[in-house]
Amino acid sequence: MDFKNYLKERITLVDQALEQYLPAEGKRPESIHKAMRYSIFAGGKRVRPVLMLAAAEAVGGRLEAALPAACAMEMIHTYSLIHDDLPAMDNDDFRRGRPTNHKVFGEAIAILAGDGLLTEAFKLLSDLEVNKDIADKTRLAVISEIATCAGTFGMVGGQVVDMESEGKAELDLPTVQYIHIHKTGALIKAAVVAGALLGGADEKALAAIRSYGEAAGLAFQIADDILDIEGTTEELGKDAGSDSQRGKATYPSVIGLPAARQAAQEMLQNAMQSLQIFGTAADPLREIARYIVERKN
Amino acid sequence: MDFKNYLKERITLVDQALEQYLPAEGKRPESIHKAMRYSIFAGGKRVRPVLMLAAAEAVGGRLEAALPAACAMEMIHTYSLIHDDLPAMDNDDFRRGRPTNHKVFGEAIAILAGDGLLTEAFKLLSDLEVNKDIADKTRLAVISEIATCAGTFGMVGGQVVDMESEGKAELDLPTVQYIHIHKTGALIKAAVVAGALLGGADEKALAAIRSYGEAAGLAFQIADDILDIEGTTEELGKDAGSDSQRGKATYPSVIGLPAARQAAQEMLQNAMQSLQIFGTAADPLREIARYIVERKN
Predict the structure, then answer these.
(1) First to last CA, chain B
(2) Does B108 touch chain A if contact means CB atoms closer than 8 Å?
């Protein structure tokens, strides 16, 4: 498959849907809708929504069934970036090469834009006019999966431990794994599980997709750690080397760069093995896993 | 009815359920679960959950059907208080007579505790093991109603306009109404509408409850404005007169205290009229409306 083209097409599809589902800038209160759109349309890679659509198709479903939920997932991811960048948290001035939300709109609006995006995600997931053909039980299961993975036993919990670990002299691998599995991995897993649910997966397919998501999610964050060392500031759109400067818990800092590279490759292999029960319909998921580990930004 | 006793019993019921549904303090990451519980169990009046239970019973339903959603509503209310109190927002040091969340746990954990509570609310609302006897369609409608009223066209939007109006020389009544209807009213309306849905209301009952919620919600905030002038710091658990010091948009500041009092009474009458189709089953809703307008804190 022509993966580069596939990715481009899927990103366009997701962007168009986000354009449709996000409140228009002109709607009152204008400032917050402008701030929400600023961060949503800041050139994100759309990894989570693209994964969700691919998971829906891998299990034999239609991508349209997963498109609104894919947008909700990107809203949750974006809210987490806005809040993580705040002065009280990571205090980042740049994200994807552009000033962070609070640098443009101020801290108060940035906090509220994050709150607004998180809430809007659940509004979209429960919208009675959107995706009426999806069974109510499936929609509830999707909301439950996403809320669980985004909360304190998932993404939010990972961010807490990440912050609390910052600057600590000795971090062990279990702590770094906890952070990665929760802060980044949980939402990536939720994306593919939700996609599989919306695509009508049976128990066996769902378990395989869940296992794929766990491996791909961890691989994604290990690759991110490695990129922070090897990537250039230009490629990353943020300061290269910022993790180590900050004393962030990363795979390379705990087990060294070669072992981190090996761990990423192992996770990639795990992800691939999880997909063995699927045929060519899962090729996009395979390509995305490879892309996750081998990307340059 | 013995309203004082009723209220006490209902608050105990809600507190017990919150104890059950909130993650235990000992669960990792401990800091955020501690912070979430700190603000949830800070002596709140539980107006929204009590209203939700009363609405379920007013339409002939069982309060047990609404108890988990009532807890979710209190989580959303509490998240909004934690974020509103942040230095970048209202910068409040005290809430209900105790130091605010960020004064105790720091800004980063306070932001994340708010995020965690908001997410936990939707997790609880969609939990597949909780309230299995409620129809899936009803549960989705409840999630949709709550997300809509909590988002940028509801509570979050009201907070945005409130902040943006602060200190402005001339505020008009429509702006103050917008703020009150959205910032406070929306969640109160959502509470009773969700309660009515979970109680099995028909179209006519639902419309009556919605109308009650709109009136009671606005009455609540006008009463709050008046209390800020007339109440003592001790009664309020926060600084009396803080709204006017800050140049906050309030009913008394725009139309004067006597007209504000009259507006609160009118809203109370509207709320009462909305309940005319119900018999004694709606007596608690009537008492709560009265309490909302006549309370001292």
Answers:
(1) 22
(2) yes
CA B177 to chain centre: 17
Tell me the C-alpha distance between A209 and A207, whole Å: 5
Average pLDDT of chain A to the nearest whole number: 95
Cβ contact (<8 Å) for A127 and B109? no
Q: Which B residues 248-287 touch A at CB under 8 Å?
A: none
Please judge whether A32 and B152 are an interchain contact, meaning their C-beta atoms are less than 8 angstroms apart: yes
Across the interface, of B119, B143, B159, the residue whose CB is closest to A126 is B143
Angle B46-B51-B54 (CA atoms, 0-180°, nearest 5)? 125
Q: Does B140 touch chain A (CB under 8 A)?
A: yes
Distance CA B138, CA A169 (A): 51
How does DSSP classify residue A66? G
Is B239 buried (19+), middle (13-18) or exposed (0-12) by CB count in 10 A?
Answer: middle
CA distances from A27 to A30, A117, A124, B220, B263 (A): 5, 15, 17, 26, 28
* Contact between B94 and B86 (Cβ < 8 Å): no
Does residue A284 have a cis peptide bond before it, meaning omega lies within 30 degrees of 0?
A: no
Contact B118, B170 (CB under 8 A): no
Q: Which residue of B has its CA nearest to A25?
A: B152
Identify which has the larger pLDDT, A234 or A15: A15
Which two three-digit tokens encode residue A175?
């702590």
Q: Which CATH number fits domain A3-294: 3.40.630.30, 3.30.2400.10, 3.30.70.60, 1.10.600.10?
A: 1.10.600.10
Q: Inspect the interface and report whether the beta carbons of A111 and B36 lie closer than 8 Å.
A: no
Q: Answer whether residue B295 shows pLDDT above 90.
A: no
Q: What is the ipTM of this complex?
A: 0.96
Residue A17 confidence (pLDDT) = 98
Beta-carbon count within 10 A of A26 CB = 8
CB A18, CB A36: distance < 8 Å: no
Kind of pairing between the strands at B94-95 and B98-99: antiparallel
In contact, A291 and A4? CB cutoff 8 Å: no
Please say whether the dihedral angle defined by the alpha carbons of residues B110, B113, B117 and B118, taken in this order, is positive or negative. positive
d(CA A285, CA A267) in angstroms, rounded, equals 14
Least Cα separation, residue B284 to chain A (angstroms) = 30
**B190 vs chain A: nearest CA distance in angstroms?**
13
- Cβ(A184)–Cβ(A221) below 8 Å: yes
Spell out the domain ranges in chain B: 3-294
Which pTM does this prediction carry? 0.97
DSSP A171: -
pLDDT at A244 over 80: no
Structure confidence at residue A14 (pLDDT):
98
